[in-house]
């Protein structure tokens, strides 16, 4: 075992690795962070929400280290939660893509890595058309934003249900643009699921 498998990925303290029959029979992932670090993340308990966690300081630190410091190992932190919530999903899952330039800069697609780590199948249908972020815009600027996505070349959207997956929903503009594109291209229905609500 390497250090990442025996120590918390966030605080580097040794993990309490206790193998139980339940963990073996339910095919749970081994822990990647300690209980103390896990407790810092605030669960989203709203029944109307489609997000697992709320945005707080711990989540801000996680996103910074994962996305901007390019710590791809942190894709494992929420893999059990994502696997539990998405393993029986009937809709086709589509992660919100990064602009190709941003992906080169970051060296990996953080959305894809979250799903891969959780062993959740997905497909790519969309391509981001701009490197701008929506969080830096005011409400009026967001409403006037040109389309953020286009379909990948030679893609045909089937008449079925799709589930858009993003790391964080703040303004909702990004997910709204992707939803409108898919519905306009022939999707029967589009739902949204995010790791965090901002």
TrEMBL record:
InterPro entries: ComF/GntX_DNA_util-trans (IPR051910), PRTase-like (IPR029057), PRTase_dom (IPR000836)
Residue ranges the record marks as coiled coil: none
CDD domains: PRTases_typeI
Entry similarity comment: Belongs to the ComF/GntX family.
UniProt-recorded name of the protein: Competence protein ComFC
């Amino acid at each position: 075992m390497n250090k990442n498998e025996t120590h918390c990925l966030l605080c580097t303290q040794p993990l309490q690795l206790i193998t139980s029959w339940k963990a073996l029979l339910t095919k749970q992932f081994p822990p990647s962070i300690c209980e103390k670090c896990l407790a810092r993340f605030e669960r989203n308990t709203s029944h109307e929400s489609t997000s697992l966690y709320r945005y707080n300081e711990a989540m801000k630190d996680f996103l910074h280290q994962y996305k901007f410091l390019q710590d791809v190992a942190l894709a494992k932190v929420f893999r059990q939660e994502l696997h539990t919530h998405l393993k029986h999903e009937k809709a086709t899952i589509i992660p919100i893509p990064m602009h190709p330039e941003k992906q080169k800069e970051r060296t990996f697609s953080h959305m894809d890595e979250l799903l891969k780590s959780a062993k959740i199948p997905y497909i790519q249908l969309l391509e981001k058309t701009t490197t701008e972020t929506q969080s830096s815009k005011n409400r009026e600027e967001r409403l006037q934003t040109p389309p953020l996505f286009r379909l990948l070349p030679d893609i045909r959207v089937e008449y079925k249900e799709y589930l858009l997956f993003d790391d964080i929903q703040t303004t909702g503009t990004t997910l709204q643009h992707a939803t409108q594109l898919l519905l306009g291209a022939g999707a029967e229905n589009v739902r949204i699921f995010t790791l965090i609500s901002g």
